[in-house]
Amino acid sequence: MEKILIPLHDNDVAPRFDLATDVLVVSVTRETSVMGKIHERVVVLDDTSGEAMYRLIMSEDVRTVICAGMEKEIFDFLRRKGLDVIDDVCGPADAVLESYLMGKLGPGQNLY
After folding, report:
1. Does 45 map to a domain?
2. Which of 10, 14, 36, 62 has a CA between 20 and 30 Å from the CA of residue 45?
3. Would 30 be classed as within a structural domain?
């Protein structure tokens, strides 16, 4: 199972990773190379910080973080911990997730 985290602002990717209070956590179970089951849920954090996000990432066993902006220190830390980080991404969370699941999402993409 793959787990993906996307910080939210309304229904869009939040402009800042460490300032989002709502987070979309997506679990993907791929049954074949293309098909799979997707379970989405929104988690509301008590406080906004890189540390709160990291605790959520670890407790949920997230492997991929998709975000717009993030401090270099946090980016480097998450990469050292073995997470995939796709940053500088803008757009509606559903479109971003769909692009990722299709293997078409990369850093710096604007899906508006």
Report:
1. yes
2. 36
3. yes
Q: What is the pLDDT of residues 32-41, one digit of tens each?
A: 666 679 999 9
CB of 97 closer than 8 Å to CB of 26: yes
Secondary structure element (H or E) that encloses residue 91, with its range: none
Q: E-strand spans in 19-90?
A: 22-30, 36-44, 64-66, 84-86
Q: Is 96 buried (19+), middle (13-18) or exposed (0-12) by CB count in 10 A?
A: buried
CB 87 within 8 A of CB 76: no
Domains held by the chain: number? 1
User: What is each CA distance from 11 to 33, 58, 71, 93, in whole angstroms?
Assistant: 28, 24, 22, 6
Beta-ladder partners of 40: 26
